[in-house]
Amino acid sequence: MPNLKSAKKRMRQNVVLHDRNQQVRTRLKNARLTMMDALETKNAEAGDAAFRTYCSVLDKAAKGGVIKKNTAIRRKTNAANNLRKIVS
Q1: What is the pTM of this model?
Q2: Burial (CB count within 10 angstroms: exposed 0-12, middle 13-18, buried 19+), residue 50
Q3: What CATH number does the domain containing 45 carry?
Q4: Contact predicate 59/72, CB 8 Å
Q5: What pLDDT digit, counting tens, does each position of 42-85 carry?
């Protein structure tokens, strides 16, 4: 256990931030799975909607620092390439 007042506060903050990051990671995973399901059915309209949602969640996670910016870019590119395969 921390002895300093600032260390105790930092410990409390870490718990809150950890919970928030876990929520964002769960949201990312769910959006990714939704998109993959839409791509497996080869439905272009559902895939496009899921892709937009996935990109939005990725951007918000990168903005909040949960994932790195380039990781979000890479995942969006891969998702767009997978979507492009079923559309064409």
Answers
A1: 0.88
A2: buried
A3: 1.20.58.110
A4: yes
A5: 888 999 999 999 999 999 999 999 999 999 999 999 999 999 99
Q: Residues with Cβ < 8 Å from 24, sequence gap 6 or more?
A: 60, 61, 64, 66
Number of domains in the chain: 1
Picking from 44, 18, 49, the residue whose alpha carbon sits closest to that of residue 31 is 49
What is the chain's Cα-based Rg?
17
Query: Are 32 and 54 in contact, with CB atoms under 8 Å apart?
Result: yes
For residue 82, give its domain range.
Answer: 5-87
- The C-alpha atoms of residue 8 and residue 17 are separated, in whole angstroms, by 14
What's the pLDDT tens digit per position in 22-34?
Answer: 999 999 999 999 9
